[in-house]
Amino acid sequence: MARPENTLAFDGGWEYDPAPEATDHVHIAARYGLFIDGEFVRPATGRYFDTINPATEERLARIARAGTEDVDKAVAAARKAYSGVWGRMKPAERGKYIFRIARMIQERAREFAAVESLDGGKPIRESRDVDVPLAAAHFFYYAGWADKLGYAFPGRSVKPLGVAGQVIPWNFPLLMAAWKLAPALACGNTVVLKPAETTPLTALKLAEVIADAGLPPGVVNIVTGAGDTGAAIVEHPGVNKIAFTGSTEVGKIIQRALAGTNKSYTLELGGKAANIVFADAAIDQAVEGIVNGIFFNQGHVCCAGSRLFVQESVADEVVAKLKDRMETLIVGDPLDKNTDIGAINSKMQLDKIEEYLKVGQAEGGTLHQAGGRVPKKGYWCRPAFFTGVSQSNRVVQEEIFGPVLAIQTFRTFDEALEKANNTPYGLSGGVWTDKGAKIFRMTQGVRAGVVWANTFNKFDPTSPFGGYKESGLGREGGLHGLDAYLKPGA
Ligand code: NAP
Ligand code: MG
Questions:
Q1: For residues 31 and 171, what is the distance between their CA atoms, to the nearest angstrom?
Q2: SS3 254
Q3: Where are the beta strands (DSSP E) in 5-55?
Q4: Could you give the residue ranges of the DSSP H alpha helices within 153-235?
Q5: What ligand is nearest to the CA atom of residue 270?
Q6: Sign of torsion, CA 461 126 300 67?
Q7: Is residue 39 annotated as a catalytic residue, yes or no?
Q8: Could you tell me which residues come within 8 angstroms of residue 78 by beta carbon, excluding any fewer than 6 positions away?
Q9: Is 4 within 8 Å of 343 (Cβ atoms)?
Q10: How far apart are the C-alpha atoms of 76 and 191, rounded to whole Å?
Q11: Is 302 one of the annotated active-site residues of the chain?
């Protein structure tokens, strides 16, 4: 398999030898069918599309493109499995299958991590240390609830919804599949899941695990395709619940399509999180947190800390330290364990980010971008931040979904809070301070589903996650995530 060149963002700095993850244990088939009723089948459309490696622009595999007939078959298989087996199975038995999936993900962790980095472009360090372990953790966590639903919701009769249609994005492909599948299965629902067009491979590998785990056919169906495949799932009359994670734009289309139907739904949408740094914060620690908040996974993170508010008296220091730190980040081969910033997921996404770099400057912002070279082939963006921007600027208001930060300053607590809340989004936020009282006031004041204090981008299956305002509706994770797959109030 061709590899991108190993590149340092820091010209004249120290050199690391490449430490590439091996890929000899990874098997990617030349072509994948749809996973329906327990087996891989050809699509009725007869059509396939390529999934590529964004670090080399080479094709990894041909992927089936599901049409409405295929979605029909998948929903029918899910319905049959729901009424025939899964919906009636003893909860403790269901739990055993889910535990088995969790263990098998752990056993194949290295393979999952390498495939995730190949298909999506994220650094192996993240797919290995974050995506894959967290995906397994979600299956473990929800497997444990399967036979304890009565304790989770005392006094309520706990009934599954039926067939769940799930549509997920490309930024955490395996992890998003785990977030969706694990609670749905634990509650006794069956599923039709569609991964994103650019990152279908780990979901298809998960289909292999599901088949190997012996799950009854039709309990999980995985249909690959583009936006129209997702729309066919959303509009299918045989689906009882829609769980969507993706952009606010598509979320609104879905909400319109679901209005007036009796389908339940949860929407996890975009974000523009504020990271707020007070003068009394541990500055070096905060700088690391800011770096992690926006440059983690190339900024392809819904809850990325893409707006930074720094208290005026420490602004120069924070900006200088951030600039120094940014210059040391290594952009390059996602399979190299030294890499901090991998490939941008697609050409389309790269074009969008580059457009924002221009827009920010045209609006009067000053762009600071790390120096250094990037590989010639593949999609790359050196990390960057803007200073001299104001609240009305597009780079401050709109989700860029790339390694680009917008920095502003504030003087008082109230000013920071007001600026942080001046956004149509409300998914996450961060506060950096030495004072507990400020943490409590800020976490209560920021209108966002999760607010981290003196840390950022930390996830755990036990804690609910989700947005306010245009960041979505409903919660995933924890008990809230279970509730979303049970009949309301029954
Ligand atoms: P997207 O364009 O909205 O796509 C998400 C999924 O929906 C993909 O599988 C996509 O298929 C499918 N889709 C596209 N059009 C559709 C339609 N009309 N009906 C039904 N499905 C449709 O989002 P993305 O670019 O993949 O992901 C980035 C976005 O996800 C960002 O806004 C990010 O903030 C958000 N996100 C939110 C969370 C959260 O928990 N709140 C987590 C992760 C990401 P194709 O891939 O084929 O287009
Ligand atoms: Mg790909």
A1: 22
A2: helix
A3: 31-32, 34-36, 39-41, 48-53
A4: 173-186, 201-212, 227-235
A5: 1
A6: negative
A7: no
A8: 163, 190, 191, 192, 218, 219, 221
A9: yes
A10: 11
A11: yes
Among 268, 327, 470, 476, the active-site one is 268
Q: Ligand 1 within 6 A of 481 CB?
A: no
Residues 187, 302, 303, 381: which is the catalytic one?
302
C-alpha to C-alpha distance for 113 and 459, rounded to whole angstroms:
18
Instruction: Return all residues near 340 (Cβ < 8 A) that are at least 6 apart.
Output: 123, 125, 295, 329, 330, 331
Predicted local distance difference test score (pLDDT) of residue 489: 76
Is the backbone of residue 127 left (phi > 0), alpha (psi -120 to 50) or beta?
Answer: alpha
Please identify, by atom number, the ligand 1 atom nearest to the C-alpha of residue 467: 41
Q: Domains of the chain, with CATH numbers?
A: 31-269+471-483 (3.40.605.10), 274-460 (3.40.309.10)
Token pair of 398 as six digits? 């709109």
Residue 268 CA: nearest ligand 1 atom is 41
Q: Is the CB of 269 under 6 A from ligand 1?
A: yes
Q: Is the CB of 473 under 6 A from ligand 1?
A: no
Query: Nearest bound ligand to CA 62?
Result: 2
Which residue stretches of the chain have pLDDT < 70? 1-15, 490
Spatial neighbors of 180 by CB under 8 A, at least 6 apart, are 164, 166, 168, 191, 193, 243, 245, 476
Question: pLDDT tens-digit profile of 275-308?
Answer: 999 999 999 999 999 999 999 999 999 999 999 9
166 with 126: CB under 8 angstroms? no
Give the closest residue (by CA) to ligand 1 atom 13.
Answer: 227
pLDDT of residue 11: 53
Pairwise CA distance, residues 90 & 87, whole Å:
9
Closest CA to 135 of 169, 101, 163: 101
User: Which amino acid would we find at residue 310?
Assistant: V
Sheet holding 384-387, edge to edge: 366-369, 384-387, 404-410, 307-311, 274-277, 428-432, 450-453
CA dist., res. 405 & res. 407, Å (int): 6
pLDDT attached to residue 31 = 98
Q: What are the structure tokens assigned to 340, written together?
A: 């901090």
Instruction: Compute the distance from residue 83 Cα to the ligand 1 centre, in Å.
Output: 30
This prediction's pTM: 0.96
Ligand 1 atom showing the smallest separation from residue 254 Cα = 19
Ligand 1, atom nearest to 172 Cα: 43
CA 154–ligand 1 middle distance (angstroms): 35
Rounded (10°) CA dihedral 185, 186, 187, 190? 10
State if residue 477 touches ligand 1 by the CB under 6 angstroms criterion. Answer: no
Q: Please say whether the beta carbons of 402 and 352 come within 8 A.
A: yes
Compute, in angstroms, the gap from residue 57 CA to the centroid of ligand 2.
9
